């Protein structure tokens, strides 16, 4: 396996996958290919020639991966216009969206599906989480610092009511949500929180992972919020990848131990952000 992206030298994926391969007694390797767009044709040539069996694709190439795939393993790939996994099936490149599949896994662990979801961000990852939220919620709201991008994402052919929210109006709409999904780089490239106060009763699904809690995660932590963090999403992403290849994954407990070893801290999977993993009541 190879992770294809730009600015990915910090990625935890190689350490995590090495642990998974060892746990399952599989012979395999996981490499990083940190390249600019001029090297993408060579990556596809390597896939077609069998020199690479599977690409995981991260930013900024998820939309490019959708475009180069010949076929898709799930209809949601066409709706999101995003693929973050490429493999060769016969003579065709198969595109898959494992962000959607990871979110499905994590949503299935909730005692009840969220009904009103606010998604922060409007990029490729946001499209995937909007898609997954459409499968469980009755209303999905999208807000982004650029309002036109929120409108463009909301205007796609979604299965449930999907509404753009002005960035200036996000706090009011967050107050009525029972799940907040953050896909924007708050706490990474933006040292701020998109919300000034945590909406009562809302859960958090934050795709950002960093060594320390981000400002948004600290806000949720002070409110005692149950949450999924970026490490838990990364773990579920791996579980979805193994399932797609019909490989039985290690138990959640063993997968959590593998991710903890790779990251130096435990993922939060519907637990308390400052207290490790605790199950929902």
UniProtKB/TrEMBL annotation:
Domain annotation Shikimate dehydrogenase substrate binding N-terminal: ranges: 3-75
Reactions listed under catalytic activity: shikimate + NADP(+) = 3-dehydroshikimate + NADPH + H(+)
Keywords, ordered alphabetically: Amino-acid biosynthesis, Aromatic amino acid biosynthesis
Pathway entry: Metabolic intermediate biosynthesis; chorismate biosynthesis; chorismate from D-erythrose 4-phosphate and phosphoenolpyruvate: step 4/7
Amino-acid biosynthesis keyword on record: yes
GO CC term (a single one): cytosol
InterPro entries (alphabetical): Aminoacid_DH-like_N_sf, NAD(P)-bd_dom_sf, Shikimate_DH-bd_N, Shikimate_DH_fam, Shikm_DH/Glu-tRNA_Rdtase
Catalytic EC class: oxidoreductase
The enzyme's E.C. designation: 1.1.1.25
PANTHER family noted in UniProt: BIFUNCTIONAL 3-DEHYDROQUINATE DEHYDRATASE_SHIKIMATE DEHYDROGENASE, CHLOROPLASTIC (PTHR21089:SF1), SHIKIMATE DEHYDROGENASE (PTHR21089)
Protein name, as recorded: shikimate dehydrogenase (NADP(+))
Record organism: Cryobacterium glaciale
